[in-house]
Amino acid sequence: MFYALLCYHQEDVVCAWTREEDDAVMERLAVVHERLARAGKLGPAARLLPTTAATTLRKDQDPPLVLDGPFAETKEQLLGFYLLDCVDLQEALAIARELGVANPGGAYEVRPTSLFLDGGARG
Amino acid sequence: MKQEEARRIGATLTAARPQAIAALLRHFRDLDLAEEAFQEASLRALRTWPENGPPRDAAAWLIFVGRNIALDTVRRRARQAELPPEDVLSDALSDTGDAEAEIVERLDGAQYRDDVLRLLFICCHPDLPAAQQIALALRIVSGLSVRQIARAFLVSEAAMEQRITRAKARVARADVPFEAPGAVERAQRLGGVAAMLYLVFNEGYSAAGDTSAAREPLCEEAIRLARLLLRLFAAEPEIMGLAALMLLQHARARARFDAAGAVILLDRQDRRLWNRAMIAEGLALLDKALRHRRPGPYQVQAAIAALHARAPTPEATDWGEIDLLYGTLEIMQPSPVVTLNRAVAVSKLRGPEAALALVEPLGDKLSGYFHYHGLRGALLMQLGRTAEAREGFMAAIRLATTAAEAAHIRAHLDALK
Question: Can you give the residue ranges of the DUF6596 domain (chain B) (predicted)?
Fold first, then answer.
């Protein structure tokens, strides 16, 4: 089944990385990604643009309210996500640990999914 | 010391400066003291870093060293004064014990940007005319030389020196509040801060190929500060426009110079080298801004940059839309430089003659401007008016401020022969 791995980190810290630091992290992650893909564990994954690029639609009213910025003002922000095909939590946590070594700092929220639609869109 | 090493250290100091001065200003509430302490710390860096190697965190090092230097100065002044300024001294001394721990904590929390923002707002004090605010901030926050600032403003070095001296005197007299301003006051200062950030960006962006790496931190700092402003003012379309504009321009950084450091113009750039993530962020921010239907100069300029970014090839550029947008910008923010830029679009749309008709009347105001003579020369060349074109290019070369600019014009001159 798919486990979502939600990547949280302090955005201003990540934005303050030099290009070299950013490249180094992405390079280390690419090694893990490739191994996961070969093992058939890696589903769709994304790195999100900074929260300043976010827009929030509040749909608890009619008409819905469109607001600038992310939904939640948190100390650490949602900066990306993975969908991983794992047999159980133990396996999902093992992958999270491995990704965490390549990309230290922040936190991963491991969350099982109840529905997954592979809509087929390719960006 | 090897020259290259000095340059590298110089670039590091430039990059660390806003953070370090802002932190020192927060500690000591005295702009001159903060600047002097940073200056002295920088000199120490130049002496000790080549031997011991640069510290892992340059800014933390500079804050720590600068803080001790400033404390010595405060103590010396207190001894010399008849009545020691006890409040200042005790305030500064009270938290020296765990200075190191505090620095570690501060850098971990990336709190420095609040310091930087505070520093920006102080430089944008309402008692200062806009031109002085910007010049002061460029000097103090960004550490640009008077000469560099004068160049960005198209004024003489002497005039700029005077402007900065006056601005400093005024800030000192004005008893600037060191608390962060209230929401309304902050919003009023946003315009000045935004303009200043864009100038900071441009100082980095207009660097030549051989210095672009050293100046790139300016572009990145300007973008980071714009993102920070946007987090504080999430619904300000002009700040979105500013951030979008800077991202869309900086996205081309890797394509703008050849291996020898010569400028590659937009229509000759390898578009595969453009940074797609920056373009995506810039387009997303512009998209968000336009939803507010409160257009402004940054949004218009970002929209122009977006049209270039969206064009897969130079031929696919929508010059008609760019001409219209520059026309809008001329109304919002009349300036001969804007008209000069519109002339480029007009030359693509309606040919060199129509563009030249737009360029010629700008001579009075732009006779000291490199790009005026460069474009004029290029248009004359296209029209086959070789002698006049050569004159224009010669004038441009005399005004070139970087080797890359001069080399670019020289290539045109060679083509004329």
Answer: 189-289
User: Are residues A52 and B291, on separate chains, in Cβ contact within 8 Å?
Assistant: no
Domain that holds residue A57: 2-112
Residue B341 is part of which domain span? 318-417
> Does B305 touch chain A if contact means CB atoms closer than 8 Å?
no
How far is residue B36 CA from its own chain's centroid? 22
B44-99 tens-digit pLDDT: 999 998 888 777 678 889 999 999 999 999 999 888 876 555 555 544 444 444 44
Residue B199, C-beta contacts closer than 8 angstroms, at least 6 positions apart: B134, B138, B152
Alpha-carbon gap, residue B352 to B102, rounded angstroms: 61
Which chain B residues in 191-230 lie under 8 Å from chain A, judged by CB atoms? 224, 227-228, 230
Are residues B383 and B354 part of one domain? yes
Total domain count, chain B: 4
| B51 residue type, one letter | E
- Whole-prediction pTM value? 0.74
Rounded to an integer, the average pLDDT of A33-61 is 96
Q: Which residue has the tokens 């600047």?
A: B35
pLDDT digit string, tens, across residues B86-101: 555 544 444 444 444 4
- Write down the pLDDT at residue B93: 47
**How do residues B196-246 score in pLDDT, each as one tens digit?**
788 778 877 876 545 555 466 678 878 977 887 887 778 899 999 999 999
Which domain CATH number covers A43?
A: 3.30.70.1060
pLDDT at B331: 96
- Domain final residue, candidates B182, B213, B244: B213
Token pair, residue B343, equals: 């002339």
